[in-house]
Amino acid sequence: VSAIDELTAEFAKLPGIGRKTATRLTYHLLKQPRATVVQLARAVQGVADRVGSCSACGNYSESDPCVLCLDPKRDPRVLCVVEEAFDIEAIEQTGEFRGLYHVLGGHLSPLDGIGPDELRIGALTERLNNGTRVEEVIVATNPSMEGEVTATYLRGVLAPVGVRITRIALGLPVGGDLGYADKVTIAQALSARREMSA
Ligand SMILES: [Zn+2]
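Above: inputs. Below: predicted complex with zinc ion.
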């Protein structure tokens, strides 16, 4: 395989990038100074080499625990549960949430073989049971059918723990992805959260 074909094939594996765009990206890089291309390769390598995940919250991080979990200014009494680490970034952009996070790593999807054991749900209950100071769990799974099913499942699992369970308001477009919503929408969804506790 030629170097051009190889890079184009790699680009084409990325989400939202078709064959045509992949080719355009490759030819764009070919036109750039060598240093620019090497810098991109180094950045990609850096993500692969240096980024791992936080054993407490599941967020991507270069340290374990991550900077969010270690920040003494964060409120350990409120825990926001999200599907993907990508969602944390979106919620942080709002500047409205000062608690801690827990990344599930996806949502329940029996048809795709994703059950509770494939998500970080055990780690969540363990975290809540092991003497943490969490008083409220905000379930911020996506406003999709799978996100709702996951939220309902979590309520069942978390009920015996005895914490307050809330769900973000679904002013978010249904079927949408929290990570793609704008700041104002996410801030509203958080502040208008409703009780899930029975
Ligand atoms: Zn963390």
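Residues 34-50 form the longest helix (17 residues).
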